[in-house]
Amino acid sequence: MASIAAADDDRDVRTLVERVLVRAGHDVSTHDDGAALVADVRANHPDVVVTDNEMPAMTGLEVIQTLHDDNETADIPVVLATGSVSETTAAEVMNEHDQLVRKPFTPAELQDSVDTALDET
Q1: pTM for the full model?
Q2: Is the per-residue pLDDT at 26 higher than 80?
Q3: How many helices and strands (H and E) does the chain possess?
Q4: Given CA atoms 67, 71, 72, 76 in this order, what sign does their dihedral have?
Q5: Domains, the chain, with CATH or none
Q6: 3-state class of 101 per DSSP?
Q7: For residues 103 and 77, is the Cβ–Cβ distance under 8 A?
Q8: In the predicted model, is pLDDT for residue 120 greater than 90?
Q9: Coil, helix or strand for 87?
């Protein structure tokens, strides 16, 4: 079982992410904005972060950059779940442990991305 912190401003997507990952046996905390996600990650150091891009307070790209710039959270892999960012743009902030999953994603695609991120660490 892994600990996962996730954020999406869409309640339905947030619920889907939580259900998929809890059913896979993970402990999941969810948030509706990027700033709350960053605060949770800094406080709890989850095994993986799952984030949307377009959110209030901080975008997913800003979340990734903030986490990677902090020595305490730099090695936590991130799954960027978005339909609004190109692979080129995402690659500018993502590291070798991070994953990109395109919206709309299936539960299997989300789980595969999280599993890959966990395997990379």
Answers
A1: 0.97
A2: yes
A3: 5, 5
A4: positive
A5: 3-116 (3.40.50.2300)
A6: strand
A7: no
A8: no
A9: helix
